[in-house]
Amino acid sequence: MPVSWTNLFRIVFVLLMAGHVLVMYSLARTQQHGFGFDFETAILSTLFALLMLLPLAPAIALSDLPEAYSRTARRRRFKNGLCPTCRYPVAPSGGDICQECGMRMIEPDPYRFTWSMARRFAFFALIAWIAGSIASEGWLIADEAAFRKEAEGEALKGRGSLLRDRRWPGNGYLAWDVDQGYFTAQGGTFSIQYSLPPAPTNAESE
Ligand SMILES: [Zn+2]
Questions:
Q1: CA 98 – ligand 1 centroid, Å
Q2: SS (H, E, C) the chain
Q3: pTM of the full structure
Q4: Ligand 1 center to residue 113 CA distance, Å?
Q5: Mind listing the pLDDT tens digit for each residue in 7-27?
Q6: What are the boundaries of each domain within the chain?
């Protein structure tokens, strides 16, 4: 089955929505200051991504843009005395079968909003929500696994700590310290806030 423009547009539309979910999930998950997968954080991030998907509801019309355009064009051709499908002029003898392409020469229905469109959008959003959330969590876990490898490499070199940015679209830093293990951090270059309190120092010695 060839992929029509309408279907291609819908695939791109679902991918864009999934990308939006991926970024929103990642934003919520990495604001939670945690290293590694956490069930409660995953649920909250998923719900946040769903909430951020709601403002896209008006895009319900967008997913049907090629269909609306095609309907309008077909109706215009019919009103101008052309075959809606192939633009061949209607024969003076009449008849409701096009002599060029054999399609029926009936006036195409105008484009209207229907509940089946709403259901289709809900279905697209559901796919984007699930796929985007899973992809986002997988991407963050992969980044954290890569960081563990990097930290192990640093430990082999005799170093005791490592700090680096999370991979996009993750927010904040991944951190490792020989005393505290793996944790995360937030903030700018000069004001980093760690998710764990710093290791105790000899504050009592005066
Ligand atoms: Zn025709």
A1: 5
A2: CCCCHHHHHHHHHHHHHHHHHHHHHHHHHHHCCCCCCCHHHHHHHHHHHHHHHHHHHHHHCHHHHHHHHHHHHHHHHHHCCECCCCCCECCCCCCCECCCCCCECCCCCCCCCCHHHHHHHHHHHHHHHHHHHHHHHHHHHHHHHHHHHHHHHHHHCCCCEEEEECCCCCCCEEEEECCCEEEEEEEECCEEEECCCCCCCCCCCC
A3: 0.74
A4: 27
A5: 888 888 899 999 999 999 999
A6: 5-61+113-194
